[in-house]
């Protein structure tokens, strides 16, 4: 299935066809999510109005993990099948995932202060998400650290795969260790422990953020592919100019 | 209205959280779109330039070595 999109031209044709739809859906779903988050959902019986931070915090956390899983899969595809578009997609997704992780951390901190009485604790859940943020930054830095783009791709892809162990650690940290952070209440076996009035805005925001993620990945992948074409054209031109100068030199 | 701003005394936390999310995402979207437009414009310019160069390079070749000797 991946093979069909390994060709940048075919990938771009598909991506451009999809782009207006995911962008439109991102706006619609996030808009609906905001309406339910602020207008049509009640305050929590324990947490009061601060529960409204949940509607940005939890979907951001999901996107932070989804984004990293996306990068790990794309990196694996790039390493195994040598698909150039896979690395481009991984590189395009990294800043998007990093931004969602940053939002998750800051909104969590702003929720923790009124509810737990502290901005931050070094417990398993919070620390593993902070590690995720640094993994994103490391991936971006490593991908851009080499003059030879292919070496940067390989090194960063390996980092992405090694760092993927952090994902199950984040997911199960609330069950494995004692923590201030509450355990999962939506992705439980059986029924979610969240009332539908709060589940609806949560899922709408998550769906909207997912669409925004793909919209941004497409935009950034287009920029990355255009950048590579520019570099290729420029170096081809420099080679052509040098060859012409050498030829002229021999003649003169 | 003041209920919405105040949010049961936690308005500061709630609106700062949403504000940060909005600003981070807005900056990300703006930077991504700007970079895509700039690079695609640059690429279009280079690609429009390339055939002209090749044609210029080809013209002397059509007239064999004369073009180069004059140049």
Secondary structure blueprint with pairings:
The complex is a heterodimer of chains A (252) and B (71).
Chain A: H1 8-38, H2 54-81, H3 84-116, H4 124-143, H5 149-163, H6 166-176, H7 196-251
Helix pairs in contact in A: 1-7, 2-3, 2-5, 2-7, 3-4, 3-7, 4-5, 4-6
Chain B: H1 2-6, H2 11-62, H3 66-70
Brief characterization of the structure:
The complex is a heterodimer of chains A (252) and B (71). Chain A contains seven helices and no strands.
Q: What can you tell me about this protein's structure?
A:
The complex is a heterodimer of chains A (252) and B (71). Chain A is mainly alpha-helical and 252 residues long. Chain A has seven helices and no strands. Chain A has helices spanning 8-38, 54-81, 84-116, 124-143, 149-163, 166-176, 196-251. In chain A, α1 packs antiparallel against α7 and α4 packs antiparallel against α5 (149-163). The mean pLDDT of chain A is 89. By secondary structure, chain B is mainly alpha-helical. Helix content of chain B is 87%, strand content 0%. Chain B is rod-shaped. The termini of chain B are far apart. The interface between A and B is medium-sized, with 38 and 31 residues.
Spell out the key features of this protein:
heterodimer; A: 252 residues; mainly alpha; 7 helices; elongated; B: 71 residues; 87% helix; disordered C terminus
Strand percentage of chain A: under 5%
Task: Assess the beta-strand content of chain B as a share of residues.
Answer: under 5%
Number of β-strand runs of chain B: 0
Shape verdict of chain A = elongated
- The count of β-strands of chain A is 0
Backbone structural class of chain A: mainly alpha
Backbone shape of chain B: rod-shaped
């Amino acid at each position: 299935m991946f093979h069909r999109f390994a060709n940048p031209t075919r990938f771009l044709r598909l991506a451009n066809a999809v782009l207006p739809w995911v962008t439109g859906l991102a706006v619609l779903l996030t808009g609906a999510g905001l309406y339910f988050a602020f207008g049509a959902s009640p305050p929590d019986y324990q947490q009061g109005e601060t529960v409204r931070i949940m509607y940005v915090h939890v979907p951001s956390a999901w996107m932070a993990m989804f984004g990293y899983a996306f990068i790990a899969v794309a990196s694996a595809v790039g390493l195994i099948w040598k698909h150039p578009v896979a690395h481009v997609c991984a590189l395009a997704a990294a800043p998007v995932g990093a931004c969602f992780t940053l939002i998750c951390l800051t909104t969590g901190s702003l929720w923790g202060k009124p509810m737990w009485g502290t901005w931050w604790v070094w417990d398993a859940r919070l620390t593993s998400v902070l590690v995720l943020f640094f993994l994103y930054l490391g991936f971006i830095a490593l991908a851009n650290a080499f003059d030879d783009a292919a070496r940067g791709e390989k090194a960063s892809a390996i980092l992405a795969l090694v760092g993927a162990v952090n994902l199950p650690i984040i997911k199960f940290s609330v069950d494995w260790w004692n923590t201030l952070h509450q355990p999962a209440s939506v992705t439980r076996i059986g029924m979610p422990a969240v009332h539908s009035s709060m589940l609806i805005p949560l899922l709408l925001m998550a769906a909207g953020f997912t669409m925004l993620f793909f919209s941004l990945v497409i935009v950034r992948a287009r920029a990355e592919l255009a950048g590579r074409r520019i570099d290729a054209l420029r170096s081809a031109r420099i080679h052509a100019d040098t060859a012409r100068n050498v030829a002229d030199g021999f003649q003169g | 209205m003041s209920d919405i701003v105040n949010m049961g005394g936690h308005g500061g936390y709630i609106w700062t959280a949403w504000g940060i999310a909005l600003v981070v995402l807005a900056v990300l979207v703006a930077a991504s779109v700007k970079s895509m437009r700039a690079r695609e414009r640059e690429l279009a310019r280079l690609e429009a330039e390339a055939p002209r160069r090749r044609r210029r390079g080809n013209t002397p070749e059509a007239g064999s070595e004369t073009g180069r000797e004059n140049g």
